Amino acid sequence: MNQRVTKSSEHKQWDAIVIGSGIGGLVTATQLASKGAKVLVLERYTIPGGSAGSFKRKGYTFDVGASMIFGFGQKGYTNLLTRALNDVGEKCETLPDPVQLTYHLPDDLKISVDRDYNSFINSLIKYFPHEEEGIRKFYGVCWQVFKCLDSMPLLSIEDPNYLAKVFFKSPLSCLGLARWLPINAGAVARKYITDQLLLRFIDIECFCWSVMPADKTPMINAGMVFSDRHAGGINYPKGGVGTIAKKLVKGLHTHGGEIRYQSRVKEILLNGNRVIGIELANGEQIHSPIVISNATRWDTFGGEGSKRPLVDIKNTPKAEKIWRKRYIPSPSFISLHLGVRKECIPENTHCHHLILNSWDKMEEEQGVTFVSIPTILDGSLAPDGHHIVHAFAPSSMKEWKGLCPSEYSQKKDKDSDMLIRKLETIFPGLKNAISHREVGTPRSHRRFLGRFQGSYGPIPSKRLPGLLPMPFNTTGIKGLFCVGDSCFPGQGLNAVAFSGYACAHRIGSSLGINQWALPD
């Protein structure tokens, strides 16, 4: 235990401390607070939400990360953002997106994923009529997985009592889901489909949210995304993605919790192998028997290139060392936030696009360009007569390291100009319509979001058996839990909300504050 004499925190006793106010951390905090626990959230930045936050510039409200939001449906159990807000008496007004995504791909392949499932399937069959049976079977399996997920409350599978209750409630769904735990989407696709171009399309379908091809994307995740976009649909929160975090913070306050900004946690304090609290960068110590890290597992426990993990290296559990051999950080992103005059975006344009010029470059540096135009759905995010265009492409931290200020600035200009040229392939004249331009890099994501190498999250270092190797919320240190994209089931806003529900349920079981009955 650290014995230094430091400033003491307020005398208030906290049942749990959450490090970081990403959506996973906020869902954990609000779920615990709604059950009566006293919860403190510590956020290093000035606003909540992490990569699901928003920031304002010159009349524009920009989303930090992607604008394609799952989890705002109204039926079943997979609408986790709707449920998380409802649980603390909050609600987001949402705007339905009629199309999830338009793909602009090599070989003149342009496909839009309509909200209506049959419309999407029929459009795909028009491109690949010889694969009609395989298309229906593959996406049909996705529906089987989704229906299993959507029929049961999604809580902690580390809790034996929960598993027993949910099995009693939905035995067939549990057995059906267990079948797909060790399977990846690529194996299922190849079982039904032989056309190599169509298999590449399924690769990019996975890559657009998992940053992995189908062979490395767990089938359970694919089943969730490929079906929920048609079931609950893509629904944009009015006012910007940052509204979700703000509403969760409001719900946290309503239920007696607190959040402190500009509070960077320097160290998780231990007594032997048990958590006793945290120490902030200013030397203040705050004590609690439970600490939840919403930081990445590299930032929490260290790893190659991690200089100051929250847990001292000598206390790193063995399981975390094994995890680091199985998973590596995904690339970060270069992000281009543009304010543009409205006339450069045609009126019938969809909100989300993906541009890929070469199949062979899908996993390479800036090989894929993602585009969001949230003002297609919510015009209030920009001044009159203007749109927001957010373009981002995977980019590795190593491409940005060792640059002096002038070199860094030059690279930002060069790379953002390259992104603009790609945008002009679908929006001619966009360059001359720009009224505001702002560039973020992996260094920006590391600095402002506190993420290891600015990474989007962990990806398998090799092909792994589905979700089975993915760690859950408990760790090898008593009282220390993890939440977010480094935990089951992985990346994505709805996925980290799932991890938040699971984490809070697991902790609630230990504290004896969970309701006996499963959620309705």
How would you concisely characterize the structure shown here?
The chain is of the alpha/beta class and 520 residues long.
Which structural class best describes the helix and strand composition? alpha/beta
Helix residue percentage: 25-40%
The side-by-side strand order for the widest beta sheet comes to 7-6-16-17-18-15-19
Radius of gyration: 22 Å
Number of helices: 15
Proportion of strand residues: 15-25%
Overall number of strands? 21
Shape: globular
How many angstroms does the end-to-end distance come to?
44 Å
Largest sheet: 7 strands, mixed
Low-confidence stretches: 1-9
Mean pLDDT: 92
Please tell me about this protein's structure.
With 520 residues, the protein is an alpha/beta fold. Strand 11 and strand 12 form a beta hairpin. Helix 2 runs parallel beside helix 10 and helix 4 crosses helix 9. The relative contact order is 0.19.
Question: Which key phrases capture this entry?
Answer:
20% strand, 7-stranded mixed β-sheet, 5-stranded parallel β-sheet, alpha/beta, 520 residues
Topology (SSEs and partners):
Layout: E1 16-19, H1 23-34, E2 39-42, E3 54-57, E4 60-63, H2 80-87, E5 94-96, E6 99-105, E7 109-114, H3 117-127, H4 132-150, H5 160-169, H6 171-180, H7 185-192, H8 196-210, H9 219-231, E8 235-237, H10 242-254, E9 258-260, E10 265-271, E11 274-280, E12 285-287, E13 291-293, H11 297-301, H12 318-326, E14 327-329, E15 332-341, E16 352-356, E17 368-372, E18 386-395, H13 405-423, E19 434-440, H14 442-449, E20 458-460, E21 480-482, H15 493-511
Parallel strand pairs: 1-2, 1-13, 2-9, 6-16, 13-21
Antiparallel strand pairs: 3-4, 5-8, 6-7, 10-11, 11-12, 14-20, 15-18, 15-19, 16-17, 17-18
Helix pairs in contact: 1-10, 1-15, 2-10, 4-6, 4-7, 4-9, 5-6, 7-8
